[in-house]
Amino acid sequence: MQYWLMKSEPKVFGLDDLAARPGQREPWDGVRNYQARNWLRDDMKPGDRAFFYHSNCEVPGILGLMEIVTPGYPDPSQFDATSRYFDPLSDPGRPRWYLVDVRYLRHLCHPISLTTLRRYTDGPLAGFRLLQKGSRLSIMPVSEDHCQFILDLEC
């Protein structure tokens, strides 16, 4: 099993939105970064776990856990001219963008803010991609050690 962190703006799609979906499941669409696309397409597997991170909000941080439920597959929004994620350069024969379906697992006991995570940059969370300068990826791998440390912060 691998671990991930996946960011979304709560005004666009938040953890409560995922929990409210039928089957508590949703495609994680709209990713338009090649490194993140590669992880979606090549590395994420059903059964992997992911932190749901709220970004671009008053208190950014990790709010919950979800599970990857499908392997990567082409994001249909890239071909839909009415979608905000439409990409006129995408070709159905050679799709550029991929997604996975995720399923809600649970909210954390309490959110773990970015400020809290930064306290451990030089300690247990050294090397954690989210805390690296200039890190703006919407999806990133999380080591098992970092995952366990973050879960230990929850209680």
Sheet of most strands: 6 strands, mixed
Following the backbone from N to C, one meets helices and strands in this order, namely EHEHEEEEEHEH
- Give the overall silhouette: globular
Distance between the termini: 23 Å
Structural class category: alpha+beta
Radius of gyration: 15 Å
Low-confidence parts: none
Record field, number of beta strands: 8
Give the mean pLDDT. Answer: 96
- Quickly count the helices: 4
Order of adjacent strands in the largest pleated sheet: 2-7-4-3-1-8
Helix share, percent: 10-25%
Share of β-strand residues: 25-35%
Structure description:
With 155 residues, the protein is of the alpha+beta class. The strands form 2 sheets. The chain has a 6-stranded mixed sheet. The two termini are 23 Å apart.
Task: Annotate the secondary structure layout.
Blueprint lengths: L2 E6 L6 H6 L4 E3 L6 H10 L5 E6 L6 E8 L4 E2 L23 E2 L1 E13 H5 L20 E4 L1 H10 L2
Parallel strand pairs: 1-3
Antiparallel strand pairs: 1-8, 2-7, 3-4, 4-7, 5-6
Brief descriptors of the model:
single chain; alpha+beta; 6-stranded mixed beta sheet; 4 helices
Brief digest:
The protein has four helices and eight strands; from the N terminus they run βαβαβββββαβα. By secondary structure, the chain is of the alpha+beta class.
